[in-house]
Design goal:
- This protein is mostly beta strands and about 190 residues long.
- The chain has one domain (about 1-45, about 55-135, about 145-185).
- It is built from 2 helices and 13 strands, in the order E-E-E-E-E-E-E-H-E-E-E-E-E-E-H.
- The strands form 3 sheets. Strands 1, 2, 3, 4, 7, 10, 11, 12 and 13 form a 9-stranded antiparallel sheet that branches. A two-stranded antiparallel ribbon has the order 5-6.
- The radius of gyration is 19 Å and the shape is globular.
- The two termini are about 20 Å apart.
Length: about 190
């Protein structure tokens, strides 16, 4: 398997039921995907007895997701960071009292396996993004494209869910599945193609 592409970032505001079941208000489209780096942290505990390891715990404890997009999308910023976007004036208004919501976040990864394309959906059930730093440079002798990155904290839902992935034979089916995760009344999985 060779990963050869990244497309179709989708996100949705998370509502978590008392039993920890996640649901979302619908799939939203962000700016175009450039990069996505998910780093997972695991518990690393060992119980020693009689001078040897008797028990270990390497379970999921959290993580970070860093996404790169092609443009500074004000609506996406407002959604992911709890800011206000005034579409009439096209102003992004930031306030110190703004609170970033938890969101579900997913993407489609294009892969080649045995000479055929396949499309893998990777979805994180619960992510909270943080205000990004801003770095701007003047134009030099040659043009360098600047892009935009945001980092979020990956957490698990109250019912233990933190991620789901599935492979599809067509990109359209992968996108439909990803958007379905964000529009279902409760996030669930279905069989792939």
């Amino acid at each position: 398997m060779a990963k050869i592409g990244l497309t179709n970032f989708r996100y949705g505001i998370l509502t978590e039921a008392q039993d920890g079941t996640p649901s979302y208000g619908g799939a939203k489209t962000s700016a175009k995907a450039i990069s996505c780096n998910v780093e997972i942290s695991n518990n690393d505990a060992k119980l020693f007895a009689d001078d040897t390891v008797q028990e270990t715990d390497t379970s999921f404890s959290g993580g970070t997701a860093t996404i790169g997009v092609d443009r500074y999308d004000y609506q996406m910023q407002a959604d992911l960071l709890g800011h206000t976007y005034d579409s009439e004036t096209q102003n992004l208004i930031r306030n110190t009292n703004d609170v970033a919501p938890y969101v579900g976040f997913g993407r489609v990864i294009t892969e080649m396996v045995d000479g055929a394309y396949q499309y893998r959906v990777e979805f994180l059930y619960k992510v909270k993004f943080a205000e990004p730093s801003q770095e701007d440079n003047t134009k030099g002798e040659s043009v360098e494209f600047g892009t935009f990155e945001m980092e979020g904290t990956v957490a698990r839902c109250g019912n233990g869910l933190w991620s789901v992935s599935q492979v599809f034979s067509t990109k359209e089916a992968a996108i439909t599945y990803l958007e379905g995760l964000l529009t279902a009344s409760t996030a669930s999985t279905t069989d792939g193609e």
